[in-house]
Amino acid sequence: xxxxxxxxxxxxxxxxxxxxxxxxxxxxxxxxxxxxxxxxxxxxxxxxxxxxxxxxxxxxxxxxxxxxxxxxxxxxxxxxxxxxxxxxxxxxxxxxxxxxxxxxxxxxxxxxxxxxxxxxxxxxxxxxxxxxxxxxxxxxxxxxxxxxxxxxxxxxxxxxxxxxxxxxxxxxxxxxxxxxxxxxxxxxxxxxxxxxxxxxxxxxxxxxxxxxxxxxxxxxxxxxxxxxxxxxxxxxxxxxxxxxxxxxxxxxxxxxxxxxxxxxxxxxxxxxxxxxxxxxxxxxxxxxxxxxxxxxxxxxxxxxxxxxxxxxxxxxxxxxxxxxxxxxxxxxxxxxxxxxxxxxxxxxxxxxxxxxxxxxxxxxxxxxxxxxxxxxxxxxxxxxxxxxxxxxxxxxxxxxxxxxxxxxxxxxxxxxxxxxxxxxxxxxxxxxxxxxx
Length: 437
Known about the structure:
Blueprint: H1 2-17, E1 23-24, H2 33-48, E2 54-58, H3 68-78, E3 84-88, E4 94-96, E5 99-102, E6 105-106, E7 109-112, H4 116-123, H5 129-136, E8 140-141, H6 154-158, H7 168-172, E9 177-179, E10 185-186, E11 192-193, H8 196-202, E12 207-211, E13 221-222, H9 229-238, E14 242-246, E15 254-261, E16 266-281, E17 284-293, E18 304-306, E19 308-311, H10 317-330, H11 333-350, E20 353-354, E21 357-358, E22 366-368, H12 373-395, H13 407-415, E23 425-429
Parallel strand pairs: 2-3, 2-7, 7-8, 19-22
Antiparallel strand pairs: 1-19, 4-5, 5-6, 9-14, 10-11, 12-13, 12-14, 15-16, 16-17, 16-23, 17-18, 20-21
Helix pairs in contact: 1-11
């Protein structure tokens, strides 16, 4: 949806400004939905090649009418010849022997859009045995055995004891990480740290503290932006498990974007932090999702999603970004406001909504060049193989000190080991493509 809005915005900007720069918004890696659908059909063929596909997207009941991406995926599947799909919740499932049923029809694939702990919360009031049957029989994508490998504590072994077993690209794009508690360890440069808590106190402007099980930016303490050092450290030691990570200098993952200053009624250049999420499946790199915002980069910090475009004109990314920024700034407040309103209206039409309004989107896309694609594909393939190594470590009990799961959650994870089967893995990366500050 961000791609559609970004392409609309770019066409208007180019038509009005006459800017002679060519951008591609339609490369397959910028439109990952077809690859996602193909992944689900591959998963179907593994077990039920002779049956008609019936694919369920299962999510929490409260989200069924609120996540347009899920709704759209089901609509796309139902438009495919010979394929049926439905969006539902765990409470609506039934079972017959080892088959999972929805409204009397046996599912061949279930894409499960929730965490194991969310599933256990539902189990307090509802029977989830039908869904557990799907997990045990291996028809659930993503396999539940992947979840422990997404725990933030695993980053410690990537940047520590297992770094020599993993590919350099994975290690390079993972910030130094340690579980945060009174301990001895090694630092970002391999230096000896006799007391991690005191080291964090002394290096407060160089680190970030994050809850191990946190989401959406909740509970994060950013050293360079926080004056309550001692209070933050005490919270991280007492409230819940935390990790400490190196703080990546903001200039390496920040870009300037034209932005409407509604109060002053003018177009300004605003600095936003960016991140670039690689979506990976069993066929390799599937596509990208770009976000912008404060720290962390999510809509709660005033940012949102943004489109991505591949630069087809033979100029450096930085030159293209500067020329596009200048062109937008030169259009004037009223013209840019009209374009913004069109983009917002398209967001409402598409259901690209946050808190009853259109999800914020930048006036300029995140720009990459064709020669960036091969390294990103290599990084994605390497990460996939490295996660297989980490899974073997977890199954062998070698990550138990880093992955703190409840007994019931761990049991669900062990019902369905991953082993490289069809899955969607999202890797957030702070990549610079040449336009950083």
